[in-house]
Structure formats: C-alpha cells, structure tokens
Amino acid sequence: MATIMMRVRQIAGIALYLGLANAQEASWRSPVNVLSRKGLVADQISTIWWFLFSTASLVFLVVITLLLIALFKKGQAVPKGPVQENSSVRPILYLGTGLTIIVLLITAVYTFISMRTLAAPSQKPALTFEIVGKQWWWDVRYEGESISANELHIPSGEPVHFSLHSDNVIHSFWLPDLAGKRDLIPGHPNSLWLQADEPGTYRGSCAEFCGVQHGKMNFTVIAEPRAAFETWLEHARAEANAAVSEEARVGQAIFMQQGCAGCHSIRGTAAQGEIGPELTHLSSRLTLAAANIPNTTGHLAAWIVDSQSIKPGNRMPSQKLSGEDLQFLLSYLMELN
Amino acid sequence: MFRGALIIAGLAVILHIGVILISLERVKAKPPLAMPDTTGRVVSQEASSLLKHYGCGGCHYIPGIAGANGKVGPGLEQFANRAYIAGHLPNTPENLVHWLMNPQRLEPGTAMPTMNLTSTEAKLIAGFLYGYDNDAR
Ligand SMILES: [Cu+2]
C-alpha cells in the first residue's frame, strides 16, 4: 500500500513537472520535485496540494458517476419548464448547491489556516541573505556585501530568511524542493523564508520570464550542518588568496588589464566591477554561468573565450585572448579557491 | 443534450487516463546506456560522461555528444582520418593520449588547457575519438 502511494505521488509529481526530470546528472542538476517534503515550507505546500487534489478528484468521480447514471438510467423524461419550479428536481438542486458550498468552505478555511502557518516561521530566522536577481544570474549578498554568485550554503534544520531584490526586471526565486516561488521586483524588496530539513544539494531556478537567457538562470543551494555552514560563510566573506604561482601572478595582471576587472570584482584586489558575478572564491563553486556548466578547467576556458555560444545574448562578451594569456588567466582563476 | 454530456464526460476521462499514461511512460523511461549518434555509432556512457565533465564540447563539435557544439577549436568528427593533431603532431594513439593529458607541454600557448586527465581517462577519450570506444579498456 505504502509503495503504491509512493508510486502515485511520484507519478503525480512528475505529471506536474513533465520535462524537467532528467536522471543521471550531477547533484546540482538532479531533478527537482514540486511535491517534495524536504523542507518545512515545502512540506506544508505539499500537504495542501494533496488535500486539494484528493478533494477535487473525489468531486470529479462523484460528478462523473452521477452523470453516467443519469445518462443511462431509463425513466420518465424530465418535464419541460424552469428547474426551480419542478418539485421532483428541487431536492437535487438544493443538495448540489449545499454540498458545493460546504466543500468550498472546507477547502478555503483549510488553505487559509495552512497559509497562516507558512507566513512566518515559529522561530525567528537567525540568518538573512540578500539575493539580487540579475540578467541572467544571481548575486548572493550577506550584510550588504556580495559573497557569492549562483550558489550559496545554508544551515540545515533551521529557518533561513531571504531578502529578494532586483535592479532590472522581475525575476522569481524558486527552490521547488524547499519552498514556493517569490518574485524579485525592482524597487520593492520581497522576502521569503525556508528551511531545509536535511543536508543536501538543491537546485533552484528563475521562475519569471526575464529575457533571452531566463531559461539558463539557475542556482544551487547547499544545506549542511550548522558548523560546516559557518566555516563556509567565514570563508565566503574572506578576501581572495594572493596569487601564489608565477603563472597565476601573470594571470592576475592580465585579469586587471584585459577588462575582466571592469565587470567582475575579486575582494582583496583592485578588481571592483559590478556588472558580472563576483569571483573571489570562484574555484570553490560547483558551477559556472548560473548553474549551467560544471566548474572545471575546460568549461571555464570555453566560457571565457566563447561565453556567447554557451549562453547566447548573455552580458559577458566572448573574450579575445591569446592562447598563452588564457592559460595564465586560468591558472589565476583556479587559485581563487 | 445526451450526446453532448457523454462526449464531455468521455473527454474528461480520456484526458485523465492520458495524463496518467504519459506520466507512467516518463517514470519508466530511463536514459539509454548508449546512444547511437547521427552516423549510427554507439557512444559508451563512460566516454560520454568524461567528455561532458571536462567540458570538451564547450570548444569542440563532437558528433554523438549532446550539446557538444563548441566552435573555439576544431570539430572532432572522423578524427581517425586526421593526419595531424593540433596541426603538427602525427596523429598516433600515443600522441593523442599525451596531447589530451597535457596539451600545454606539447604545444605551449595553445588555447587548450591542461585539464589533468588521468591516462586511463585520456585513453578512453582517445578510443572514443578513433571510433573504437567499446574496446578501449
Ligand atoms: Cu527569469
């Protein structure tokens, strides 16, 4: 029985999300499930969904059954004239209307009560991240400072608060495994809380069409125990390592001259650009270009010299670099861990 | 009246069954272990996941690998027929494996970075490029 229920849920979940499921990928690409119960908020939403779905299915079944009975039952024809005046039909009319009102009332009250508990966590979140939606990536800020892009860690088992902003068009922050969507609206900060019950890697995406590369505007959230999270946060807020190897030092100079520094910032260096993602600890991230390609040397090289083929129309021009300079740059970027 | 109601009821039921059937199909459908490319060749899952992990497709066109349509470097179709690797190394399996493991040593300053492939990985990929990936191990 339990397995049948699981099966049914799985099927319904996938039916709702046809197209995104693609097993066999790395964890930051693993399929998302809109009906998952991996977090407090997601759990509530899932319960509401199953309640409404069962109620609606029941009503559907009853209506179809009654309809079929009525269609195939042999009997006298319904007399002509307004239904209200026909005493043999009147009870059905009252019963139908009455039942409908009761069912709607129950679902409405139930939904309102659940939404109240969703509005605020019982325990005030100890942490707030600011998320700024960009075209087409996510700036992750903490206490007013960009500390990462397209990837952040959160402590598991406690509520976390997100303050959502945009300085361009409307985006929507959506982590289907953990919570519902919330829009990022220019000039109107929004907020969202969520909780990951278990450590894990969760995939998120933009859920409001925001331009050509909307479809490639994803992000990754890594939930981990509090201690590991604190180590991450401290590291993320720290300045970049000084370039160690000779190649990396040459690469750093190229980064500053080539124009990268005009768009990207690396804390602790002269690079202060704000058009693209901050790159202070780039090589410690899992992905590049808003959770679209794995962060490996080959992908990184391809991104730098041909970002426009990988994500056509994105705001980073493909860079014209000699092969040598590219190697130096790569050495530098790989040292930014 | 009767006809109309029957048709609507029928459609609703068919729609429901349809959604359930499609979902079942989705749940069952597993990605194929190996898939033929446009020329009908079968690509091993191992080589294909290596190529994807290292990002070869970001710079090269590689038939049979989904999304590998980069234009930074040369296309890698029919690689066995090439006379030279990178324009100057004779195209032998040994040279190809060395090239994959450390292109910067063989041709300093080429755009292709050294990605620290192990020799097993390089052999798998070389085998794939020559078209006999099934017995590359
Ligand atoms: Cu979007």
3D architecture notes:
The complex is a heterodimer of chains A (337) and B (137). Chain A has 337 residues and is of the alpha+beta class. Chain A has three domains: 9-32 and 239-334, Cupredoxins -  blue copper proteins (Immunoglobulin-like, Sandwich), CATH 2.60.40; 40-68 and 89-119, no CATH class; 127-237, Cupredoxins -  blue copper proteins (Immunoglobulin-like, Sandwich), CATH 2.60.40. Chain A has helices at residues 2-16, 40-72, 90-119, 226-237, 246-258, 260-263, 297-310, 323-335, and strands spanning 128-133, 138-142, 145-149, 151-155, 160-166, 171-174, 182-184, 190-194, 200-206, 218-224, 287-288, 293-294. In chain A, the strands form three sheets. Chain A has a five-stranded mixed beta sheet with strand order 3-2-1-5-8. Chain A has a five-stranded mixed beta sheet with strand order 4-10-9-6-7. A two-stranded antiparallel sheet of chain A has the order 11-12. In chain A, α2 (40-72) packs antiparallel against α3 (90-119) and α7 (297-310) crosses α8 (323-335). Chain A is elongated, with a radius of gyration of 27 Å. The two termini of chain A are 49 Å apart. Mean pLDDT of chain A is 88; it is low at 17-26. Chain B has 137 residues and is mainly alpha-helical. Chain B has two domains: 1-30; 33-134, Cupredoxins -  blue copper proteins (Immunoglobulin-like, Sandwich), CATH 2.60.40. In chain B, 45% of the residues lie in helices and 6% in strands. Chain B has helices spanning 2-28, 45-54, 93-101, 103-106, 119-130, and strands spanning 35-36, 42-43, 84-85, 89-90. In chain B, strands 1-2 form a two-stranded antiparallel ribbon. In chain B, strands 3-4 form a two-stranded antiparallel sheet. In chain B, β1 and β2 form a beta hairpin. In chain B, α2 packs across α5 (119-130) and α3 (93-101) packs across α5 (119-130). The chains are: A alpha+beta (337), B mainly alpha (137). Chains A and B meet through α1, α2, β12, α7 and α8 of A and α1 of B. The structure holds copper (II) ion. Copper (II) ion (CU) binds at residues 171, 206, 208-210, 214, 217 of chain A.
